[in-house]
Amino acid sequence: MTHNENGGGITTVTNASGVITSEFADLLGRPFKTISGATGLTQWGYYAPGTLGGWGGKLASMTDGDYVTSASGYNAKGQRTTTSRTVPLLLPPLPLKCPPASAMS
Q1: How far apart are CA 15 and CA 61, in angstroms?
Q2: Residue by residue, what is the 3-state secondary structure of 79-90?
Q3: Domain extents for the chain?
């Protein structure tokens, strides 16, 4: 199956527990987004193929469902030389759950 985001395909899997996971791939077959009922949204970013210094096409960053971002740097040979991890101090607010009307009377 194809999609309009990066011209790749979608793979959808349901595990034994019934959790559905959809992985979106770009034209090169690299994952760029995964949506899972268990872990939420995970996104990958890549350096453009023509990027100087051996970084072209390599993984630039990955952000998981907890908003933790891991970023990578490379040397001129394209070997990963640095990795950083950013953990957010504050998470987005959770939706408020209101008690049923009968509990308020």
Answers
A1: 27
A2: CEEEEEEECCCC
A3: 10-89
The amino acid sitting at 102 is S
Three-class SS state of 74 = strand
CB atoms within 10 A of CB 25: 20
CB 8 within 8 A of CB 2: yes
SS3 101: helix
Q: What is the pLDDT of residue 67?
A: 86
Per-residue model confidence as pLDDT tens digits over 48-100: 887 777 788 899 999 988 889 999 999 888 899 999 999 887 755 555 555 55
- The four Cα atoms 56, 29, 42, 6 give a dihedral, to 10 degrees, of 80
Between the alpha carbon of residue 73 and those of residues 11, 21, 80, the distances in Å are: 29, 29, 6
